Amino acid sequence: MFLDREMLKRELLTWAQSYRHQDFERAAELYRKLSAQRGAVDNEDMDLRINTGATYAQLEWAGRASADAPQKPAREDMEAFETAYNAACQSIARDELGQAEVLLRRAKELCEASEMDQQEKDAEIVPISIQQLYVLIRQGRLEDAQALAATID
Known about the structure:
About 70% of the residues lie in helices and about 0% in strands. By secondary structure, it is mostly helical. Helix 2 (about 25-35) packs antiparallel against helix 3. The mean pLDDT is about 85.
């Protein structure tokens, strides 16, 4: 059974509410349900992938990793800056800092190459850079961290 557009909107709203209230288990459950319906509504697959990744990253940070969360980034995670960023956050939460560094670099490259206007790019680059800064500090690369910090507005 495929979800119609109105039902999908309701499910996405329920997910957003769960996410905002930090009920990440419920958000993950909703996305598993929605993911089973992929293709039911045009152009929703990437949004589902992005939001699922954000949910899994939050669960990792909270120490409540979902059993179905990917342990390694997929090829698709390297195609959009949002998915690369979410995969990086999951890696950071698992203390896989080398992998996180690569993913954050990719996220920044994809963001800079995107069709967004410069103001939107700048707004998206800041959290990527902050996570890069965190990774560099955790790796003990303080000179690199200091150089990066000087570039963050």
